[in-house]
Every structure is written in structure tokens, then in C-alpha cells.
Amino acid sequence: MKLGEKAPAFSLPTGDGRTISLKDFKGKKVVLYFYPKDSTSGCTKEACSFQENLSALKKKGAVLLGVSADSASSHAKFAAKYDLSFPLLSDEKKEVLKAYHVWKEKGMYGRKYMGIERTTFVIDESGEIAHIFQKVKVDGHSEEVLDVL
To answer: Which of 44, 96, 127, 140 qualifies as a cystine partner to 10, CB 3.0-4.6 A?
Structure first.
């Protein structure tokens, strides 16, 4: 994925029973963040930090969407537990993860496995990729995103 490219279209279910498509937000900035797993320490910290900065994101005209391969019901529990008021999208088939090139080989303790590389895309009002944060470090990330909006 490169800056200025058209963001891949998608339509995914949420934890609250809706289906959300990228085209729903034409004319708005979209912060699309991919994270590995609901209710894990890093992902919880990242989601809560985005929640704390949600009103500032909205003031800058942006919509926030989180995506992982967890089920919609897992997202519903995660959002309820941490009072997350932005949509979490379920990509169990990993089609969107692959389209955005965030489904990658990872390694831990010498073991190789496939997983989500924590990545955030800022998509501009015309649907093009305006900024990419790769291999995101959770601490201070939501503030970095605000700075580029």
C-alpha cells in the first residue's frame, strides 16, 4: 500500500449487528486501525487510548474504525467491557486484512505464525490513503494519529 492509492473497499460486520462499508464515509476522513486481538493488553490499551481521544478525532472531521479477525460477538464483549463507542469490524475471513497487507508472517520465541501487524491507515475525504503507521507502538499512537489529521 502506498500513499495516494485508493483505499481498498470493504463491507464488514460490527459487534452491534450492523454492517459498515468504507463507502459509508465518503467525504470524511477515516482512521482505520488494524489490531491483533480483542482483550489483550496492547490492543486494550490502544482501543482505550483511541476512545479517550475520540472527541478530538471527531473535531478534526474523522471517523474511527477498528478491525481484527475476531468475531463480531467477541467485538461486542470487548466494546462493552471497555465502553468503546466506535465500531469494531470483524474480518474473520481475513479478506480486508490481506487487501490492506496487514496479515503477515510474525515470529515469537523462534516460532513463525500468521497474524495481524498492528497498522493504522488515515484515509482522506476522497478515499485515498493519506498516511500509514506501520508496526505501531501503542504508547502515544492515538496522539500521533491526531497530529496528522
So the answer is: 96
- Kindly list the structural domains of the chain, giving each domain's residue range(s) and its CATH number in brackets, ordered by start: 28-148 (3.40.30.10)
CB 45 within 8 A of CB 138: yes
| Whether residue 43 lies in the annotated active site | yes
Q: Which of 32, 43, 97, 123 is catalytic?
A: 43
Euclidean distance between CA atoms 33 and 67, whole angstroms = 6
| pLDDT, one tens digit for every residue, the chain (149 residues) | 899 999 999 999 998 889 999 999 999 999 999 999 999 999 999 999 999 999 999 999 999 999 999 999 999 999 999 999 999 999 999 999 999 999 999 888 889 989 999 999 999 999 999 999 999 999 999 999 999 99
Entry pTM: 0.95
